[in-house]
Amino acid sequence: MLSHLLIKNYALIDQLELVPDDELNIITGETGAGKSIMLGAIGLLLGNRADTKVLYNPDQKCVIEGTFGVSGYQIERIFDEEELDFSPSCIVRREISTSGKSRAFVNDTPVNLETLRRVTSQLMDIHSQHDSVLLGSNEYQLEIVDTYAQDDALLRQYRTDYQFYRAKRTTYDQLQAEASAMRKEFDYNNFLYEELAKAQLQADEQESMEQELNILENAGEIKERLQLAYEYLDNAEQSVINFLKGAVSNLSYISKLSNQYDQLQQRAQSTLIELRDLADEISTEQDRVDTDDTRADTIRDRLNLIYQLQTKHQVKDVAGLLDVQKELEQKVSKVLNLDDELAEAKAQADAAREQMQVSAQTLSAARLAVLEPIEAEIGGLLRDLGMPNASLKIQSETGKATPTGIDTITFLFSANKGIKPQQLKNVASGGEFSRLMLAIKYILASKRSLPTIIFDEIDTGVSGEIAIKMGQMMRDMAHSHQIIAITHLHQIAGQGTAHYFVFKDHSADRTVSRIRKLTFDERVNEIAQMIGGSNPSPSAVKNAREILKQRATAVAK
């Protein structure tokens, strides 16, 4: 529950601190004093959007911080899933900078708004007049049924199965679309693939063939040059080898005279051997060179085919053509195997759909089981709240699967005898909506481990004995939940275990909203003013004192 609230630099609030009671907290004050402003600040903790317009002082950042005691509430799982530190005291903070940038923290860990909403939705619930509009929507009515049914586990399982089915169905639909497109391209892709496959391309053939063709086209000159090179090296009349033989002979002679010439002789001998080998190889290469026009034509045809394919597929080498061939082979193969792949994808989608339907039916059964108990409980509470002829009927229809199930829930309401129940948005007045909403919140309170519930003028349109009963219901709820109620009715204000007064302070240069906790005598005076106006009569004061004594007596019992 909320143990401490700090609001700094928000709207008309310079700085405000609130330490609410564990049970029923009453907040009163004149219209415009700042009660709704305080709720707006709390809304920021729940993940509402904000901008720089909320800054009291535009040169300073706004800070909203709530400290919640969460011991005994089963919410550790959410902290684990969001990778947040869990402790018995949870601090939630929202900051809005002067530039309008918003930051949120849970236990000093930065979080995004989605995570903030997920955490704080388990800590606090605010009922405002806007909820009366929400109550008319089928989605909100379905949430009410789910909360009462406590079917969270079933709903999570259904959503898991639903998302799994949607993924499988999307895969199947995409495969069908791809299959249709690929079948249209199949003939062309298959032609291209067969053309490349028929070519039987080898990764390194282009370079070797280009080199071989270059030799064939210049065979005459190559043979002539090789012959000249050979004759320079080893000619019978005059050659390098003959001269080198003379050098070796002379060096051999002098090396016999002195071994200091041995190295020169050995080098000359090695060079002679190397030149003889070189001459032999040149001669061999000369014999290999041949003018084969047939072979040249064959190579030209092969290279022309490769060049044409490269131009056609816009690649630079044979390796690129092989990549294209592989890609085309995959496309062709996929089309040839589409029927099997489609059948498998359809089977998986059908199986996922069957599992989703099982989960949907289980969830639907859990919802249907609580419709009559909800009708009965709310009907009894409405009678206690002065609506003896009111009736609530909950209509359930099943249809196609949605993220929330296959059920459409519709609340049909009639406040008067003999009037057929109709959809809420068409029949309920403000006071009737307030009583109906309180009845709903009352029956749901025991179904949720929600620490704090805030009622913002839920008493709109009611008075007298009905207001007393509403106050008693809030007091009952406060035994298991912390309740914060903003009210204009003395009957409800008198039920609180703590009473806070919101007022405007005009003592400085700029008006600010403040809040203070009232003492018993101050409560008597405030409730008396709520009864009899700004100058309450002695009887109003006596009545106020009596209301508080009755509350104390009821609590003692």
- Structural class estimated from helices and strands: alpha/beta
Helix-residue proportion: 55-70%
Tally of DSSP helical segments = 19
CATH topology of the domain at 1-123 and 451-518: Rossmann fold
Shape: elongated
Q: Radius of gyration, Cα only, in angstroms?
A: 46 Å
Domain RecF/RecN/SMC N-terminal: 2-505
Keywords: ATP-binding, Coiled coil, DNA damage, DNA repair, Nucleotide-binding
Function: May be involved in recombinational repair of damaged DNA.
Coiled coil: 165-219, 254-281, 328-362
Features:
15 strands; Rossmann fold; alpha/beta; six-stranded mixed β-sheet
Describe this structure in a few short sentences.
With 557 residues, the protein is of the alpha/beta class. It has helices at 35-45, 76-81, 113-120, 130-134, 138-149, 152-199, 205-217, 219-233, 240-257, 262-288, 293-313, 318-336, 338-384, 424-427, 430-445, 464-477, 490-493, 520-532, 538-556; strands spanning 2-10, 13-18, 24-28, 62-69, 89-96, 102-106, 109-111, 124-127, 391-402, 405-414, 422-423, 452-456, 482-486, 498-505, 512-517.
